[in-house]
Design brief:
heterodimer; A: Alpha-Beta Plaits; 2 domains; five-stranded antiparallel sheet; B: alpha/beta; Rossmann fold; six-stranded parallel sheet; binds thiamine diphosphate; binds magnesium ion
Chain lengths: ~170, ~600
Amino acid sequence: MKEIGTIACHTISVIVDNEAGVLARVIGLFSGRGYNIESLTVAAVDQTGERSRITIVTSGTRMVIEQIKAQLDRLVPVHKVGDLTIDGRFVSRDMALVKVAGTGEKRVEALRLADTFRARTIDASANSFVFELTGSADKLDAFVELMSELGLVEVARTGAVALARGPGGL
Amino acid sequence: MTATETKARASEAAAAPPILSGAAMIIRALTELGVEVVFGYPGGAVLPIYDEIFKQDGIRHILVRHEQAAVHAAEGYARATGKPGVVLVTSGPGATNAVTGLTDAMLDSIPVVCLTGQVARHLIGNDAFQEADTVGITRPCTKHNYLVKETSDLPKIISEAFYVATNGRPGPVVVDLPKDVQIEKAPYVMPGQREHRTYRPQVHCDDKAIREAARLLAAAERPIIYSGGGVINAGPEASDLLTEFARITGIPVTSTLMGLGAYPASDKQFLGMLGMHGTWEANHAMHDCDVMLAIGARFDDRVTGRIDAFSPGSKKIQVDIDLSSINKNVAVDLPVIGDACNALAQLVAIWHEEKLGQGQPSLDTWWQQIEHWRTKDCLAYEDSTEVIMPQKSLERLFALVKDKDPIISTEVGQHQMWAAQFLGFDKPNRWLTSGGLGTMGYGLPAAVGAQIAHPDRLVIDVSGEASFQMNLQELGTIAQYKLPVKVFIMNNEYMGMVRQWQDLTYDGRRSESYSETLPDFVKLAEAYGIKGMHVEDPAKLDAAIQEMIDHDGPVIMDCRVAKIENCFPMVPAGAAHNEMLLPGDVVGKPKDDEALAVV
Ligand SMILES: Cc1ncc(C[n+]2csc(CCOP(=O)(O)OP(=O)(O)O)c2C)c(N)n1
Ligand SMILES: [Mg+2]
């Protein structure tokens, strides 16, 4: 389908049976049919480990987004598909671990900024920190950019995890 | 399951479950699931299963000559019976050879369960001899696939595989079986419930939506039913209901390539096939209709032509079991999710219940318009006394076989489109053709599968000389099992469909589309102990066809037809339905590169 209409970003939540190959199936669907993946996170989410939740941030026209959801729904081990972006209000968080090395003034400044961003220090040595930070992708971007002036060594980031607001669940 | 079977199972469950090898479990599970035939080819990684096959006689194994053909044969079997087709192949090359067949079954939504051998569990990932990542390779070309890791899981997985292959939108399912899993022993416990833990396709249509569909159709002045392969997949009852619904509403019916036979071709409400090589009346009616009921059809690009000019003024209702088929290519106004059979039953019921016929506007003007389109006689061709025209060969074939209710398979090319145009099917499950993937080499093995299912029926593979050579090794299978398949090769010495496109859109540069160095098909047949025939004189055509039909056994007929005939009508590259070409029309080259790219 030719792209007609505006392209919007959607956060899609998928509950899947936690079986071998299920992630490959989901990713293969996106690459095989040419859909975008902005980010994707996955982990088991029940006590028995039978179900996983995949959170996918994707973008496309209304028709493409509908196709993505229908194609996901069609996969045999997919249990439920929800579009958080259109189903109502939702909360979404990314997490980053940010390693900064330095001494003196820069080190102090890094720590001060981390505090402002409400990052936690989860590792420290005489000349380095690893900060843990959660928030929107924008917030993490902003923090990483500030750290690049202050001895940024490396970054590890997750994609978004998200849930609908209010008492209801998928 | 019968009551005795249920009881037997219950008492068995009470006793300790039997301890069986994985291979024995596989055969037992297949038997319990009602499998009668397996199409396969042996190899190292499936030897334990073949040993179990040797020891029993409940399941019949048909030895093909190539694994691709095993899958096509299973597809032919499935299409001709409505039951799932079953395939058994070895690991590595056996599995990779099956991939084309699996993709074919995927695109045409054919229920197939394919068992593949795999190297032993401890060798997986080691590049072991004949190891291939079968579940990885087949993931995008199957509806679902499994790698069995524990012998005790076998009964459940196999029963689930059949459930998934046959429920919802049907499709191929692969079960990959490591050799040591086949050898190890474990308790055999077949689950009572045959289903999938979470997979529950919606089969019943939402009452409100289907009611609205019925009302839209009742208010339409120029309605049309566009029926597809989904109606065939929904079983013969769906075809009966489609016919009933069309009769009570008076609505004209057109069909996709895959849907032929769901509505009787001989009925006056049938407009013929639509799409690229569809009839003038079907395509014009699609273009001009005001309400369209698409049922079990997916708006394939071969059907729609230029998408932005496709049936521009109509309200579109789409009934499909697969949500992802809806709004994929064409935006529809009223989507209805559900099984075609249920949908049609509901439509018929609502039509009677709400007495919708009474308020229906007269369709007379619409039918007059359709009759006018019909006067174009779009399938007419210029006959010859010198050479057999390809259309003529099929017209005569049809005239001479139609009373025998034949099953027809085809290969891919011009002959396939002509067969769709000139052979009429009044009932479902008699037309076996590769629509979605367009796989040359499909027809011969598909005919094998159909003939195995129906040993006493007349089964004909309408073939092209090029396609025939893609799976001709299956003549060995035909000879071995004495299958009376008739192969009707419409030999035009060209990959005719390729040549047609080259002539129409590449200024006649016939690049590599001539069928060089053809074998002598009569001698080839004889080499397999099969009757070979050849005809090229139009005056002898009828007698030759009759001799082919009357022969008690397989026949390869080399029917020499006109070499440079094009298949019309034709919706050319990047054109709309109402811009269709007929023979003699000056063919314009595609308007732009974009048009050239979509064909
Ligand atoms: C496996 C495969 N390879 C290539 C093609 C492309 N193709 C479509 S039709 C055709 C020519 C078929 O020639 P023939 O079987 O002689 O049939 P005809 O068109 O002459 O009736 C080709 C090469 C295909 N459909 N399938
Ligand atoms: Mg040919």
